[in-house]
Design a protein that fits this description.
alpha+beta; 5-stranded mixed β-sheet
Length: 647
């Protein structure tokens, strides 16, 4: 997915590079042909071509003022006629391509035609042949439209790639909103009822002990609903993640076919012009016309883009016939061969797309060298080089027209699959976030209600204190639930250490906290807070510790979170025996930032160690691999006399 747009861009700029290499060789040949080969004119010619190349690239990448760039190109196309005269020409194709790329979709054809005709008119005026106007006109149209077609297909590839990524983002955001709606509708409703009932219980002059089991039931239902929603997101299959969509219409394929048709039509017209231009032997002309028509048919059969990149059935025979016919005509009928040999330029493209690499590249190189060797005796070194460069240029154009629609088709075909993968990844992440976000608060609520039930009759004031903590925890959980998509981003290590110490001490544990980490980047600090929260949650749910220690230290570009507790073999009598995913979630989060996490049980002591680089590695979070089963030793934390917690 990533390589395909890059491939399209490389093909487009490769075609542009070959265009200007071909134009440079042509103009140097023209200067030599018209006896205008001087250092000043050569430098002026090359500098003008460089200006045209730079402005065309700026138009392609959409940088700079379009009107100014087109104006500079117009000056670079027409002004050299005043200086070079007959040694200049055929540069209008660059301006034609820029007009098609830069102008509004329906407006460019008039200025395109005007520029192509004006350049051809000046060339025809300066050259005595009456067919020069027609020849230059066709060349400008063919080269200009070829550049436009390749660049336009490249832009369509990039647009398809970006649309696919944008669609995946939209689907992921929709899934996140659906999860938030489910949580608010189910868990949020339970928490709101729990808050109201707790407030009523606290507002009563005497504590009604009959309310406590009701509050416990609400807390249990909220935890069950949260777990059910997390399980829904975790267990949905890939096939059910997004609705299937119909494949897109092959706009790019039709565009490539039309581009190929117009290019072949221009080559046909150019060949016919050259045949009538060099009309000396009528028999050779008749042979030339027949060969050109056969070459056109074979080019359409071999080079026209097909649905799914299909291959013609008899392509080896057709390709051998095409190359043999054109090469034989060039060798045996010299007056017609110069006209028909232009189709060898397109035949190089069919070789490139039909023959496997590296044989195709070798065949293309042989074709270019053969054209140079054949023509440099009659056309000179620059003339032979011009045709050889033309073989490479048109091979690149045909290769692009054939492959870019297929690249776009593959992007379309994989778009839904990638969107489904993104949605499934997001669902797994949401399941993890639901666990990490609500697990601690719901565990605190259940523990505090249990403590209130134990102390309700013997110590009503203490029971009221526990209920007040239930209300505060429920309110905080509800507040985080309302900002579900960003709540975990606001978690901090220091706040979670304070919360963990308070709740564990209330449960009878002795807690020690040591913090020696200084300033930590926000993303790393948030993950440290999540680790502390999950550890405290697991202690509350799965163990009855007497001593817990939280140690946060930083050294040599790494911060370490070390949490130990005893009581791993003394599970809480009300332990939640549902499948746990806490350590798996933490491991996923830690590895996503380039860190590592270990958990070890030694007799009744459980130790959790997470090491994180202070400058978190920019690795995208991966989807949770599933919920690894945790034992009662998943967490145990005790805090003795707390060391001073940083403020």
């Amino acid at each position: 997915m990533i390589l395909q747009p890059r491939f399209a861009g490389l093909v487009a700029f490769g075609v542009v590079f070959l265009l200007f290499a071909t134009r440079t060789v042509y103009h140097l040949e023209a200067l030599e042909l018209h006896a205008k080969w001087t250092a000043d004119l050569v430098a002026f010619c090359v500098a003008t071509i460089v200006v045209l190349a730079i402005t065309l690239v700026l138009v392609i990448v959409r940088r700079g003022n379009v009107a100014l760039l087109l104006g500079i190109q117009a000056a670079a196309v027409f002004a050299p006629y005043l200086v070079i005269g007959q040694g200049w020409g055929l540069a209008g194709s660059v301006l034609c391509a820029s007009i098609l790329l830069a102008a509004p979709r329906r407006a460019p054809w008039v200025p395109f035609a005007v520029v192509a005709a004006a350049d051809a008119g000046l060339a025809g005026y300066l050259h005595p042949s009456p067919l020069m106007f027609t020849y230059v006109l066709f060349v400008n149209v063919a080269y200009g439209f070829a550049i436009f077609a390749v660049v336009r297909l490249t832009q369509l590839v990039q647009q398809t790639h970006e649309d696919g990524r944008r669609l995946a983002g939209i689907e992921v955001e929709a899934e996140r909103l659906r999860a938030a709606d489910r949580l608010r509708a189910d868990v949020g409703a339970r928490l709101s009822t729990l808050i109201r009932q707790t407030r009523e219980a606290l507002a009563s002059p005497t504590l009604d002990h009959r309310r406590l089991p009701l509050l416990g039931g609400l807390a249990h239902q909220a935890a069950t609903d949260a777990r059910a929603i997390a399980d829904i997101h975790r267990n949905l299959s890939l096939a059910d993640s997004t609705p299937a969509r119909q494949p897109p219409v092959g706009v790019e394929l039709r565009f490539a076919r039309w581009a190929h048709l117009l290019i072949v039509a221009n080559f046909l017209a150019t060949s016919l012009v050259k045949l009538f231009w060099d009309w000396r032997v009528p028999e050779h002309a008749a042979v030339g016309i027949a060969v050109v028509l056969a070459a056109v048919v074979l080019q359409f059969y071999l080079g026209s883009p097909r649905v799914g990149g299909g291959v013609p059935r008899w392509w080896p025979i057709a390709l051998a016939t095409q190359v043999g016919l054109l090469a034989g005509t060039a060798l045996l009928a010299s007056s017609a061969g110069s006209a028909t040999s232009v189709f060898l330029l397109l035949a190089g493209g069919t070789v490139l797309i039909r023959v496997r690499a590296p044989w195709s590249w070798a065949a293309l190189a042989v074709t270019a060298v053969a054209c140079f060797a054949y023509l440099h005796h009659t056309e000179g070194v620059w003339g032979g080089a011009y045709v050889a460069m033309g073989v490479l240029y048109w091979a690149a154009v045909i290769y692009a027209l054939h492959n870019l629609p297929e690249v776009t088709r593959r992007l379309h075909a994989t778009r839904d699959e990638l969107t489904r993968v993104a949605v499934v990844t997001e669902r797994l992440r949401l399941a993890r976030d639901i666990h990490d976000l609500l697990g601690f608060h719901l565990s605190v609520i259940k523990l505090k209600i249990e403590l209130a039930l134990r102390t309700g009759e013997a110590a009503p004031a203490e029971a009221r204190g526990h209920l007040a903590q239930v209300r505060r925890s429920a309110e905080k959980a509800l507040a985080e639930l309302r900002t579900f998509t960003t709540a975990l981003d606001n978690v901090t290590c220091r706040e979670e250490l304070s919360a963990a110490r308070a709740i564990l001490e209330a449960g009878g544990a002795s807690v020690t906290v040591r913090y020696d980490a200084g300033q930590i980047p926000r993303k790393v600090d948030s993950l440290m807070g999540i680790i502390v929260r999950e550890a405290a949650t697991n202690i509350i749910r799965h163990a009855r510790p007497e001593i817990c220690t939280f140690e946060i230290t930083a050294a040599e570009g790494e911060v370490q979170v070390r949490i130990t507790n005893d009581g791993a073999d003394r599970p809480h009598p009300q332990a939640d025996h549902s499948p746990a995913a806490g350590l798996a979630n933490l491991r996923e989060r830690t590895e996503a930032l380039g860190g590592r996490l270990t958990a070890v049980t030694d007799h009744d002591t459980f130790t959790l160690v997470a090491s994180l680089p202070i400058e978190a590695a920019p690795v995208p979070p991966t989807a949770p691999r599933g919920s690894a089963k945790c034992t009662a030793n998943d967490a145990a934390v005790t805090v003795r006399e707390p060391g001073r917690l940083p403020t």
